Amino acid sequence: MATRIFLDTNIILDLLDNQRECHKEAVLLFNLIDNGEVMAFFSESVVATTDYILQKLLSKDFRTEFFREISRKIQILPCSNMILDRALSLEFEDFEDALLFQLALENKVDFFITNDKKLLNSTLKGIQLVRAEQFLNIKSK
């Protein structure tokens, strides 16, 4: 069975902006997704947040086509009242992070991939929290 990964918003931004520090790793990560070596997930809020941020950088047509294409490769997970309630009980400073983590946990992903330095300092139980670069190193072994 393929490794199941949850992608944080910053991974999508890294992929689309070649000026970002982790762009190369995001491209390699998406190659794994394209090749079917990993099964990728993100939340509907990641889509909305990413689109909001990209409005200043990319045209609506590009964003529309990008999300159309990516939705064929990555499963978009919906949030529910239960996930929201459970996320509220987690001890995270950033509620968005708590919500994404709970969504990933409920959907039994193996790795939560982020390049968010603040989130990487968190201790998550039940999911391995790694940078894109770390995940690529794990997969190459």
Please explain how this structure is put together.
This protein is an alpha/beta fold. It has one domain: Rossmann fold. The chain is built from eight helices and five strands; from the N terminus they run βααβααβααβαβα. The chain has a five-stranded parallel β-sheet, with helices on both faces. Strand 4, helix 7 and strand 5 form a beta-alpha-beta unit. The longest helix has 12 residues. It starts with a strand and ends with a helix. The model has no long low-confidence stretch (mean pLDDT 90).
Question: Which characteristics define this entry?
Answer:
single chain; 141 residues; alpha/beta; Rossmann fold; 5-stranded parallel sheet; 5 strands; 53% helix
Task: Please summarize what this structure is.
Helices cover 53% and strands 15% of the residues. It has 141 residues and is of the alpha/beta class.
Low-confidence stretches: none
In spatial order, strands of the major sheet run: 3-2-1-4-5
Known CATH architecture: 3-Layer(aba) Sandwich
Q: Tell me the series of helices and strands, N- to C-terminal.
A: EHHEHHEHHEHEH
